[in-house]
Amino acid sequence: MPDGSPSLSLTLHQAIGEIPPAEWDACAGVGNPFVSHAFLSVAEDSGSATARTGWLPQHAVLRDAEGRVAAVAPMYAKTHSYGEYVFDWGWAEAFERAGGRYYPKLQVASPFSPVPGPRLLVRDVPKRVLAGALVRACEDLSLSSVHATFCTEDDFSALGQAGWLQRLGTQFHWQNAGYADFDAFLAALNARKRKTIRRERREAQGCGLEFVTLRGGEIGRAEWDAFYAFYMATSDRKWGSAYLTRRFFTLLGQRLGDAVVLMMARSGREWVAGALNLLGSEALYGRNWGCRGDWPFLHFELCYYRAIEFAIAAGLPRVEAGAQGEHKIQRGYLPKPTFSAHWIAHAGLRRAVAGFLEQERMEKRVQMEELAAFSPFRKEEEAR
Q1: CA 33, 34, 35 angle in degrees (round to 5)?
Q2: Model confidence, pTM
Q3: Average pLDDT of adjacent 10-residue blocks, the chain of 384 residues
Q4: Which of 62, 188, 267, 374 is the most buried (most CB within 10 A)?
């Protein structure tokens, strides 16, 4: 499948296993685990991201005339919009009411992961070349659209310049200002918020629970069994169905090693709560959480405060605690923009979505400014 250049060709692969890990990771880099060959293989080999679940792999590989891999993109043909966290249900409904066929569509993403990171994984070519190749793949397959979700700002800019529609979202991230320890972070907050966090931690830690942080090979079958039960209970409450299989977590621990950080709490010999994180070169990424029982402020302790402690000890620049959650602001996680880009084949739908996104971008910018006003940091700290 040519990309328009006589020296480059694009192939699509229905399994990440068709692509040698070294070739993929040479483009993906080592900074973000969610686009690594290992993570994508876990999603597929566990039965989580497969054609059966509506995630048919169509991983894009751009090769030069000698057959060397110049760029790749994690891509899927989707028969629904579940597990993406950038919602386009309204676009699909409007198009299908008008007689169009929105699904299947192409999704350039890390499955089930609202984690910002690179999506145009290039080594020897400009990003605009890969962007153009993805559009041509969409056209050749006669699909409605191709979407790059939770991409970097650099990807966002390149895709916008290539004519893709641009969309803004919001997440809440904690930034490390070189704190020596958790108390140094607290000292940067205003007195009322500092007092609140100390009270929340005191109550969470005063319940008689034992807190344990496990990594890679330290996580055994019993821990994964317990965490999977937490994950299923949370999925049932929030979405009604689970995206990830039990095997996903076993393979995650095996293939990503010490990049897997599992923060658990137990009462006696029984695990009662857990928070799953993945470690990148620049951030700790919070992913899934679950709990059995009712423990005051346990969610904040495991998901936010212990993540901050871990990041400070590891010298990480930030913690990204996942999607949604304005309550995170009061705990030091401030609003940050997230980016996605969308190429839509049908001219009428493209015009309608473009108008919607223009208005939405303005609203998102205003919303982030308003949310930032609730920052818990002392004014002199924010001025630095």
Answers
A1: 95
A2: 0.95
A3: 68 98 97 98 98 97 96 98 95 97 98 97 96 98 98 98 97 97 98 98 96 95 96 70 93 97 96 98 96 94 98 98 89 97 98 98 97 91 51
A4: 62
